[in-house]
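RESIDUES AND SHAPES:
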Amino acid sequence: MYQDERLLLILDFLRKNKRITVEQICSLYNVSRDTARRDLVKLEEQKLIIRTRGGAILPPVHNEIKGYYHRLQTVPHEKKIIGKKAASLVNSGDRIILDASTTVQACAEYLGDQRCTVITNSINQADILSSKQGIRIHLLGGELEKEHRFLYGESVIERLSNYYVDKAFLGVVGISENGLTVAHEEDGVVKRKILQQAKQVIVLADHSKLGITDFYRFADLSDIDLLITDKTPPKPFRELLKKHSVELLVADDHEGEEDEIENVNGD
């Protein structure tokens, strides 16, 4: 086998298994330890791997978080069915907090004219809700993050500490065994305060966010009560939710059919 062929096989193994050892290369491709090390050196020179003690891993991939309006166009259908289900959980008289994520914006869009009070740090959410007659809006003042459309800072945190609400609806960039993560610390600090002020914490995340860990962790899985997503997650992820007592609600795309509620206390 030529080296170039072997390098492709090593990369394929890494994509499937996350890491490879020198011993595995020797066994899988019937080469000496010196040859295996030369293969890893070659891949490292091409910046395709990171060498570790005794083997290699793939380099981390950091996806750029696009601006708010660009993210609105990402999986918009999935966000709509999640947002619609989330909005159905809001009862007349509820006091709720909506954060500044694009999936939570879908929830705001589906809220009717029922009497309720909404607290938000999102200028987009406030604008959408301003046309709904029964909804009172408290917009948290602070510094505006222009690209991502959220208000943040000490004044936002201070005002949040005075509110106690029935439900908080939060978006994430990732939800995994490492907890709930976002791309920006300023956003995460606000979200952390939001979940502290709510009786029920509800996370809205499409299937592409599950199992993902991003830059800044603002909460543990045990800090949330309910996850609403658009596809049934794999069993290991459902077991992870069960371990942390998080209820799972899979929003159904078909009108007139019941949504699938996963009982995380069983399979």
About this structure: The chain is about 35% helix and 25% strand.
